[in-house]
Amino acid sequence: MMRKLVRFFNEKNMKDIAFKAMEEYKEFIFEVDSVTTWLDRVLRNPNPVVLQAYANWSIPCRKLMPILEKKTLEAEGKWAYGRLDIDEVPDLATALQIKLVPTVFLINKGHSMNRIEGLPTEESINEFLDDVKLVAGLESDEMVFQGLLSAGKEFIQEKKYDEALRSFSEALKVKSFGEKHFVECYEGMLKAAFNKGDTKLSQEYLEKIKTRKNELSTEGAKFFEDVEKSLNDNKKMSEEFIKKKTVVEEKIRQNPKNYEFMNELCKLYYENGYHEEAIEIGLEIIDLEKSFKGYGQKAVVGILNDLGPSHVLTKPTRKRLQSLHNKYSV
């Protein structure tokens, strides 16, 4: 039975596969052997056509052909690849003003969009194929996606975390590519959110990635584990934090005008990751001291310097500091 199945697969299925492949090959790759073919399959083709003028005696032509064949088949019908033998159809070769082989044209809707002459370098053929893909609409989305992804990574290096979040978020929306690179986008967003100091957003992105963690890069997986550990450590510290907080709050209750104790509370909140609460305490101290030169001002400025200019709390806090400065420096 097994032999029959193997034989069936080998004889029938392989023939079907080969036939299908040959049909696709003939559909997308063809010889321009007459003016009729030129008109029907090149000028009137609804898709872009890469046309290679060649000669059988030319070694560079033979080197280029398999490259263009491969790229055309990979495009799955988004463009066609026509080959024109200048010795077989000399009138067309003359009309196209071909002076050197290979010469490759990008023809779209009857118009020549680009051309390269001679055996192209790898760089020049890639640039030419980028134009083909763009005209074909095959990878314009990919180009947009890659641009957003690169921008997001650069913004993280520059510590522009809000801009990085926007770039990765937009990359996620790019049709087909956002889903395909879902984890890569969220990895970037997690880095931006965590470095920005937004623990709530970091936790949200961790949950998004968790079910597809195996798709992370080695670096991404390490970062994921570090963030997860950091957030979990913060939760574990809560009990100890509450005990210390209770002690300091009792000191404040007994000595309400001793702002050194409030400063101690501010420091305790900050060291345990409660950045926003620490800032609020520091600003409150400024109001209570009615001074911009005491514990409160030093505490808040120190926190902002530590958080850095890109942190989510820095900009709004600086505005409030400026307001208090105007109020108490008069």
TrEMBL record:
Top-level division of the source organism's lineage = Eukaryota
A Gene Ontology term for the protein's cellular component: cytoplasm
Which is an annotated Pfam family here?
TPR_20
Q: From which residue to which does the signal peptide run? A: none
Q: Where are the TPR repeats?
A: 145-178
Q: Which residues form the Thioredoxin domain?
A: 8-134
Instruction: Give the record's GO biological process terms.
Output: response to stress
Keywords noted in UniProt: TPR repeat
Q: Which PANTHER family match?
A: GEO12009P1 (PTHR45663:SF11)
Name under which the protein is recorded:
Thioredoxin domain-containing protein
